Sequence to fold (534 residues):
Amino acid sequence: MNVLRGLGACAVLAGIAYTVTRVTQVSGVVIGYTAIAIVVSLTGWALSLRRLRHDRRVAGATRRRKRSGGARSILAGAAVLALLGGAGIAGYRWWTQEQDSAVLTVRYRTHGAADGGAAQPWLEVINTSGRTVDLADVRLRYYYTADGDAEYAANCTRTALDCSHVSLRTVPAGNTGSARDAYLEVGFTGAAGTLKPGGTTRAIGLQLYRVDHKKVDQSDDYSFDATMTVYQESARVTAYLDGVQVWGEGPDGDTEGTEVSAGSGAGTARIPEGVLFDDFAYTGPDDKALAAHNWEARDGEGGPGIKDSWSKKAVTFPSGESGASGQVVRLEAATDGTKKGTVQSEFHTVRPVFREGTLAARVYFGNTPVRGKDGDHVSPALFAISPDHKSKKYSELDFEYMPNGGWGRYGPILDTTSWRSSEDLDRVTEPHTRKLEGWHILTMTAVDDKVTYAVDGKKLYTSGKAYFPRESMTVNFSNWFVDLPFQGKRSWEVKVDWVYLKSGAAVPADEAAEAAAGLAAQGTPYVNTLPKKG
Fold:
């Protein structure tokens, strides 16, 4: 009976040891438990042997009782050995399983050939370890071959994590013409959250494209696989945790355990709440990411200007000024002097996003046409407006720049206008005789029942409570003609480098510019953490 009890105790102790080592899941703790068990076990076994030798020297009637005590000592030692065995086995199993299985697993799929000139990798990260992983510590690399000196960019088209929490950067590796030429690095902001054991990010839809908008050749891209049109594990997309490679094999043969330095696109910073930011990293007016990010290029009828002449083809996304990195949204207004030969452009948010707070944008105005004869009454504008023009709470805030004037006035003129009703022409406005050739930061701040308009941080006009926005408005950029005063082909452009919106707070122009630069630098070309309502 004592033997059975001892064996039962051994089993219980072994189970406890195994459970403890599995719960802790820390190799140092396992080693510590094992070391303690070794010491206790050896001590107990030595004492039991010593007691047994003593029993053999004891005479007569006490021999059986002493042997029983010796047996109990032996069983106690055996129990400790069982504890040692359980801890050792558990630690061994934990260690080998943790080393043999990946901490992260990456799955990949593609639509196959480039669609609209862009590669479209879709990625999924799965936590295949036994511990929780902070996504801010995770990075992925998708390798591609840069075509000549082409500049590449990327954006997020769709993800359950929210594209605002995905950071992207394209990194040339300096080996032009080889499959290891460059890579797209995907990171996550601090607000992306964590992955519990077995957890997944679900689908992360990405676009990789040339900034010159020529078609991407994926045939020699290391990570591309045209056969993977459904999600499959891909060892050609590498994953890193805290700078150490934990999944895949890079084109240089780098495998698990390889350390990499943290790049500027690691994206570990937390994105501030109540912010809309866009750096305009898009392939064109039909880019799927536009709808995902609440943008639309107008393509239809209506006014103002030359009615029914709006075309989304007049909205493009070239590289930044003077060949600088990054992109801008370019809006063209072109005409031959006839209504039929006129094209105007507008780019706006589909849903309302702005009522109280600060709306800022870095905008380029031209005082002369990029092509053709000067003299048009052209009107590039930044404005916020109610989606329903007949709304009882109609609201509108305008910057309108007319380099050659318009509406019977000489230019250059910058109008700042706050509206209460478009149908009743209920508004307050103030014109400013200013020449705005080149890049400027325009801000409109709606706080404390006042709307203040400023250019490059200098206040120009403030409207009062009666014309304060009464409902949320869409954000719009446009370029249109007031009229067509003469014949002949000509074209005007306006460009927007970035837009930044902070809900409920007044933000000076320099702070808005600094915030925009910081977000772009950490690889987040688009952010939307605005309140869901309001």
In short: The two ends are 76 Å apart (CA to CA). The CA atoms of residues 297 and 347 lie 5 Å apart. The first strand starts at residue 104 and ends at 110.
